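Target chain:
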Amino acid sequence: MKRLLIMLAAAATVVLAGCAGDDKPLAAGDTGATILASSKQSAEKEQGARDIHDQDAFKKLWDEIYAGRTEPALPTVDFTKNTVVAYFLGEMKHGGFVLRVDRAEAVKDGYDVDFLVISPGNNCHNETQDATQYFLVATVPTTQQVTFDVKNRETPGCR
């Protein structure tokens, strides 16, 4: 009986975590990337990924992200060792999404970065019903060409 209760508690935790709707990405950990900024509000309304290899282009990207809003200080990046990567989810009709760098690693012809988009489950309470424009900006330890892959995952449906 005790074992059954533990299993039920663990299952409930997984289901509830899927409905949390946390819009902040988790720390990059050992994915090979360092998160510089992320939010659910950006001036960029189109979906896409970018790689930035110099300070001027980074400043331009930063200004585009925060256009019309209070802009935080531009993070310091050593472009002799790093590349800035950014992913924009595009304009969504509600909140509850999570963006992460799933993997970032050197490959034969450059560097691969995989972004993971976790969509809120069906019938989950979303943090907002307002339009959102999620984005994530990170650095990866390369000066080579970067290729991107975007993976999507849906959380379990909420009841």
Summary: The two ends are 26 Å apart (CA to CA).
